[in-house]
Amino acid sequence: MAERDWLAERFEEQRPHLRAVAYRMLGSLSDADDAVQETWLRLSQADSDEVENLRAWLTTIVGRVSLNMLRARKSRREEPIETFSRLSPDAKPALVNGAAGVVVVLGGRPFAVMGFTVVGSRIVAIDVLSDPERLRHIELAVLDR
């Protein structure tokens, strides 16, 4: 068990480097974290006694895992969410009751509204409203892009 703990410590030392490599390849932090986790699983199942340079071995594995994820993404026609963000033609940035939000307009009328609660620089809550009766009474200001 002591060897596994030692290996886990060495892996954690390399985690920031591995995450950076995966992020540069994948363009998504969540995908990068998935690739790093998969790299840990492969390391934990490998015979690490034969690994001479752990950093190089881990970099190679995270690179291969990332390439596999890119291939899978291409075959499923996925895009990272960051690419996390262009609005559809029916969704418009808006002020919802004076706060940041999005209004989805269908047929010239609000269909749904999302209001964001922002604390600091983070969204901490999203309120979604799609009840037509309540939408008639909400104060909206659609913003130009």
Topology:
Elements lengths: L1 H25 L2 H17 L8 H23 L14 E6 L2 E8 L2 E11 L2 E8 L2 H4 L4 E3 L3
Antiparallel strand pairs: 1-2, 1-5, 2-3, 3-4
Helix pairs in contact: 1-2, 1-3, 2-3
Brief descriptors of the model:
alpha+beta; single chain; 25% strand; 4 helices; 145 residues; 48% helix; 5-stranded antiparallel beta sheet
Walk me through what this model shows.
It is elongated and about 70 Å long. The longest helix is centred in the N-terminal third of the chain and has 25 residues, at 2-26. The mean pLDDT is 83. Helices cover 48% and strands 25% of the residues. It has 2 domains: 2-76, Rna Polymerase Sigma Factor, Chain: A; 91-142, no CATH class. Helix 1 crosses helix 3. Strand 3 and strand 4 (122-129) form a beta hairpin. It has a 5-stranded antiparallel sheet. The chain is built from 4 helices and 5 strands, in the order H-H-H-E-E-E-E-H-E. By secondary structure, it is an alpha+beta fold. It has helices spanning 2-26, 29-45, 54-76, 132-135, and strands spanning 91-96, 99-106, 109-119, 122-129, 140-142.
Give me a quick take on this structure.
By secondary structure, the protein is of the alpha+beta class. The protein has four helices and five strands.
Tell me the fraction of residues in β-strands, as a range.
15-25%
CATH topology heading of the largest domain:
Rna Polymerase Sigma Factor, Chain: A
Low-confidence stretches: none
> Helix- and strand-based class?
alpha+beta
Say how many strands there are.
Answer: 5
Order of helices and strands: HHHEEEEHE
Q: What's the CATH C level of the largest domain?
A: Mainly Alpha
The structural domain count equals 2
